């Protein structure tokens, strides 16, 4: 790192400098002299390498300005793309890098950049996958084609015997991991040299001969295939810059498609215009042109009268603001003076919150302990254990665990589940929960604020639940009536509906012993469950009528 | 000294007052029960209280006692079987066995035992002729004179202390024990109670019995308390614990956060738990293909998979922004999948509410908005991760605001939520803001913590929603502050189902 930056950097100062990469310094290993940085921005793959980070820090530390130069020698190499490959995995780019012995550290860092890029930006190798090869074993031109899965075979990396492409997908660990990318294809991509020796079976695995880059090698053949030409050109540029900065000489490769030729790498730059007004508007900084130029150049851009040149290893600049952010980063967020907001605004809660808080206060006043549970639950808890039919549930297609595979549609099961875990705690146990539930009715999904109260002790009964309901209605000033209600979770003849303005807004009574036994509860439980959203709506309407 | 005595005297419970005078050097509980007319429980309680006041000494011991069992009590009334056998035989001198058994009303068991006893005493002899007969021997007079040992034992006053028995008595006890349900032997706790010197002093000083114990409505009505002393209570005696209703600890913390935002002029917003990819990500200018979507790994809804209620006007504008760019942007340059944007997911980030709010005709400019809502992430649940967690965020929309205001806002948050002016604002990455910043605050006790993230919404995000002025977006993570304030080590305790924990965690 120090060599690449051109200045000595201590691990301590790197902790601060890491922020310039939108990253967090996460550790330094003294024994190997390695630092770890966690990066936030997934759009800047060039920073996934020491070379990239060093390039950025050279700008931060005023060692370098503008876009660094890169020299590419016209090479006499060719990759011939067969039309069979175009229908399968259409794009390829490549170059040759010569002249530096590869040691352990460099090999490790190259592989790290390769894997990070293919996994993240390359969408787990689907969009782009990279191969690095021992140059001296290749007879050019290289041929890129697609073949029948059983018609070609070679010794894949890490194995001793020859396998056909079809066998590799079944038997090689990488084959099994990535074979989904080739699902449905009749022919598979293959790279061979002019002697017919296999380089690799992209995007699955390299050969164990040409495709095995080893320490001590000094010449590399780089290749990337994929489905997105822009992404593979970007990766080629990132690797070309990294290897060039490592002291390799770069040679271009001619890619001959059936209908066109491309020289690779082609580190073309794009341009975007920014304005002083935008800089000032976005950052609140009054900067003069030379200052803006200086900051832009240290950020690694070219600057010419507010026309910005974007380096070829970046594809993240979509809007002038992307450049202006980088200008602000180089300026230093810490150097920007904060300014207080001056506008006067009046704060407001959600209208229902006050109503909810009044009800919670009443429940607490009559001795109930408030509980707050996860919203995710499961159908076994919500219905099976309650002896209740499914009343409309949103289920998760990809649950992490069956325990959290559905959104709760009512709260009573959640509180019974809780009581079942507290059988040895002092009685009486009086608990309540107020919170959101989600109910599905056909294609309609609705959230409701609900509240459930539960009282468990040796003499808990219907009377207690009715007392609670009547207290709440009385103290909220809501007119109500009560009718008999049959519900499988409750004892028949001991449960009732709470009716407000002709609408059922709640249910209460004694929990059925069959349900209690499902939960292993050996103490009577009386319960109340009220739909607060519905209650609020009717209460609001009543309130409005009164005002009129 | 006298004062101390009076204090003790006035703290005596009526039961204590009743039994203390009955205690002498070697009383025991059963005697006090008899003498006082109180129940054994009452006496035991009073003795314990007197002991804790050091007015009596208590010495507990165990003794073996004999009591009459069911048959024993019956024999006491009906006479022992051997007596009945003997009397019947004495009347005739000689008889058939079966006749004796019948006239003495003996069961098989009793009959066999009787023959055994009488034979052992050599008082009878059994002869086998055509029928088995039994006759008294010449020793019968001795028996007539001495009587049966068992009979005399039964006449003792029960319960009988085994240790007080003579050796012959112990032998006859042995015989009775081997017979069915005549006696039972058990261990009895004997509590010896003796008065202490202090107890005697107290008695000598006199313990008034005219003292008000419990204050009752009757006493108040009659005025009977006037001029009388109240019994002093033992103020340090343990009392049964009560539990009451209270707010859940984390919810209480969140309520305070909400109040804070209201007082800072923010208006609360919300949105549905089940979101569409549109509001959850697309409307935030997060491209459908991008790996940034991995950070927000979401839970997908099984049914219905797609929403039928997205505002098509906004969908088209967002699609355009993604595909071709808007307001000077190149866009993401890919084919925006309109079907996918309707896909139902569980809200994975609270920021999903911001585009909803920004698209409302009722949006106030200038305006400050916040939301605190439950979000869901595809995470393995452990001591630091929940599948289901609260997020707090919002935005400020106003003509002319910029990065300096953003830093000013973060500074205010640090002051309000981490109680500090020491902050570090550093570059960060969020797909929907440019520039983006992370806030670190030096909490007076916790040290440096990452408190929040912020940025200025990209024009590609706000313009399709019809907003042309800058919008500062922010989110703050108060979970760590909450855990610190509540003294929690495990994040799952925020949603604890442990009732004892909920009842006892300190209120903050």
Q: Biggest interface and which pair forms it? A: A-B, 83 and 96 residues
Mean pLDDT of chain B: 89
Contiguous runs where pLDDT drops below 50 for at least 5 residues of chain A: none
Number of helices of chain B: 23
DSSP, total strands of chain A: 26
Rg from alpha-carbon coordinates of chain A: 34 Å
Number of domains of chain A: 4
Instruction: Tell me the strand percentage band of chain B.
Output: 15-25%
Name the overall outline of chain B: elongated
Write the CATH homologous superfamily of the largest domain in chain B. Bira Bifunctional Protein, Domain 2
The biggest sheet of chain B, with number of strands, parallel, antiparallel or mixed sense and barrel status, is: 7 strands, mixed
Features:
heterodimer, A: 548 residues, alpha+beta, Phenylalanyl-tRNA Synthetase, Chain B, domain 1, Phenylalanyl-tRNA Synthetase, Chain B, domain 3, B: 508 residues, Arc Repressor Mutant, subunit A, BirA Bifunctional Protein, domain 2, seven-stranded mixed beta sheet, four-stranded antiparallel beta sheet, 18 strands, elongated
Write a brief structural summary.
Chain A is α+β, with helices and mostly antiparallel strands. Chain A has 17 helices and 26 strands. The termini of chain A are far apart.
């Amino acid at each position: 790192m120090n060599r690449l930056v051109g200045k000595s950097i201590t691990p301590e100062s790197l902790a601060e400098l890491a922020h310039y990469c939108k990253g967090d310094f996460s550790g330094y290993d003294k024994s190997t002299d390695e630092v770890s940085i966690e990066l936030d921005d997934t759009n800047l793959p060039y920073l996934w390498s020491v070379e990239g980070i060093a390039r950025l820090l050279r700008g931060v530390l005023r060692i370098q300005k503008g876009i660094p130069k890169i020299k590419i020698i016209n090479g006499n190499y060719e990759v011939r793309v067969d039309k069979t490959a175009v229908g399968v995995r259409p794009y390829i780019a490549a170059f040759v890098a010569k002249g530096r012995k590869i040691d352990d550290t460099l090999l490790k860092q190259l592989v790290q950049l390769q894997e990070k890029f293919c996994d993240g930006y390359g969408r787990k190798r689907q969009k782009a996958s990279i191969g690095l090869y021992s140059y001296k074993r290749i007879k050019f031109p290289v041929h890129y084609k697609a073949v029948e899965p059983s018609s070609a075979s070679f010794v894949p990396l890490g194995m001793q015997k020859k396998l056909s492409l079809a066998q590799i997908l079944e038997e090689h660990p990488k084959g099994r991991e990535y074979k989904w990318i080739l699902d449905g294809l009749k022919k598979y991509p293959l790279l061979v040299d002019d002697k017919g020796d296999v380089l690799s079976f992209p995007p699955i695995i390299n050969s164990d001969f040409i495709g095995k880059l080893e320490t001590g090698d000094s010449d590399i053949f780089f290749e990337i295939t994929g489905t997105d030409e822009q992404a593979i050109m970007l990766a080629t540029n990132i690797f070309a810059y990294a290897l060039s900065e490592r002291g390799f000489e770069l040679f271009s490769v001619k890619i001959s498609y059936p209908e066109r030729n491309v020289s690779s790498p082609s580190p073309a730059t794009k341009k975007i215009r920014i304005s002083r007004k935008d800089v000032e508007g976005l950052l609140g900084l009054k900067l003069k042109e030379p200052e803006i130029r200086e900051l832009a150049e240290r950020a690694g851009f070219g600057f010419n009268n507010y026309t910005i040149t974007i380096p070829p290893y970046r594809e993240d600049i979509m809007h002038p603001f992307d450049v202006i952010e980088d200008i602000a980063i180089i300026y230093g967020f810490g150097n920007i003076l904060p300014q207080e907001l001056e506008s006067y605004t009046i704060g407001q809660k959600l209208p229902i919150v006050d109503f909810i808080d009044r009800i919670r206060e009443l429940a607490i006043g009559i001795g109930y302990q408030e509980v707050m549970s996860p919203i995710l639950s499961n159908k076994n808890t919500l219905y099976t254990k309650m002896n209740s039919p499914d009343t409309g549930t949103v289920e998760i297609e990809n649950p992490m665990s069956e325990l959290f595979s559905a959104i709760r549609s009512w709260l009573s099961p959640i509180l019974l589940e809780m009581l079942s875990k507290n059988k040895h705690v002092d009685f009486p146990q009086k608990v309540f929960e107020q919170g959101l539930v989600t109910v599905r009715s056909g294609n309609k999904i609705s959230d409701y604020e609900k509240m459930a109260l539960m009282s468990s002790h040796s003499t808990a009964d219907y009377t207690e639940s009715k007392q609670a309901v009547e207290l709440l209605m009385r103290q909220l000033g809501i007119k109500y009536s009560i009718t008999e209600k049959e519900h499988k979770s409750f004892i028949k003849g001991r449960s009732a509906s709470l009716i407000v303005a002709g609408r059922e807004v709640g249910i209460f009574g004694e929990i059925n012993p069959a349900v209690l036994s499902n939960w292993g509860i050996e103490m009577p439980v009386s319960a109340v469950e009220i739909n607060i959203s519905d209650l609020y709506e009717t209460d609001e309407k009543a309130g409005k009528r009164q005002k009129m | 000294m006298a004062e101390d005595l009076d204090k003790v005297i006035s703290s005596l419970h009526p039961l204590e007052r009743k039994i203390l005078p009955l205690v002498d050097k070697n009383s025991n509980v059963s005697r006090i029960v008899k003498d006082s007319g109180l129940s054994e429980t009452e006496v035991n309680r009073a003795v314990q209280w007197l002991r804790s006041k050091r007015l009596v000494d208590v010495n507990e011991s165990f003794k073996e006692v004999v009591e009459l069992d069911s048959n024993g009590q019956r024999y006491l009334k009906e006479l022992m079987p051997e007596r009945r056998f003997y009397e019947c035989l004495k009347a005739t001198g000689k008889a058939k066995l079966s006749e004796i058994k019948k006239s003495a009303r003996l069961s098989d068991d009793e009959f066999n035992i009787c023959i055994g006893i009488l034979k052992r005493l050599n008082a009878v002899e059994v002869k086998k002729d055509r029928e088995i007969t039994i006759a008294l021997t010449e020793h019968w007079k001795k028996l007539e004179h001495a009587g049966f040992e068992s009979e005399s034992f039964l006449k003792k006053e029960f319960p009988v202390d085994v240790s007080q028995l003579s050796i012959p008595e112990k032998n006859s006890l042995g015989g009775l024990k081997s017979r069915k349900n005549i006696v039972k032997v058990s261990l009895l706790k004997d509590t010896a109670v003796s008065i202490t010197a202090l107890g005697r002093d107290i008695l000598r000083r006199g313990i008034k019995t005219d003292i008000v114990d419990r204050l009752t409505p009757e006493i108040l009505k009659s005025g009977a308390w006037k001029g009388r002393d109240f019994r002093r209570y033992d103020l340090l005696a343990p009392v049964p614990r009560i539990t009451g209703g209270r707010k859940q600890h984390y919810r209480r913390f969140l309520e305070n956060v909400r109040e804070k935002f209201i007082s800072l002029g923010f208006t609360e917003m919300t949105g549905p738990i089940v979101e569409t990819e549109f509001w959850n990500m697309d409307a935030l200018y997060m491209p459908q293909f991008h790996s940034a979507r991995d950070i927000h790994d979401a839970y997908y809804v099984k049914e219905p998979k797609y929403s039928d209620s997205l505002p098509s006007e906004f969908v088209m504008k967002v699609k355009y922004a993604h595909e071709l760019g808007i307001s000077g942007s190149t866009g993401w340059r890919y084919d925006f999948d309109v079907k996918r944007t309707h896909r139902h997911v569980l809200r994975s980030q609270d920021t999903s509410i911001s585009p909803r709010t920004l698209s409302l005709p009722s949006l106030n400019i200038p305006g400050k908005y916040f939301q605190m809502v439950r979000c869901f992430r595809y995470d393995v649940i452990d001591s630091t991760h929940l599948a289901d967690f609260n997020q707090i965020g919002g935005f400020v929309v106003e003509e002319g605001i910029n990065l300096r205001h953003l830093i000013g806002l973060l500074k205010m948050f640090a002051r309000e939520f981490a109680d500090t002016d020491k902050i570090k604002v550093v570059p960060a990455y969020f797909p929907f803001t440019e520039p983006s910043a992370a806030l670190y605050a030096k909490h007076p006790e916790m040290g440096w913590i990452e408190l929040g993230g912020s940025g200025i919404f990209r024009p590609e995000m706000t313009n399709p929603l019809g907003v042309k002025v800058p919008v500062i977006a922010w989110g703050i993570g108060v979970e760590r502050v909450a855990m610190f304030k509540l003294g929690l080590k495990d994040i799952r305790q925020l949603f604890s189902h442990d009732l004892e924990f909920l009842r006892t965690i300190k209120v903050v």
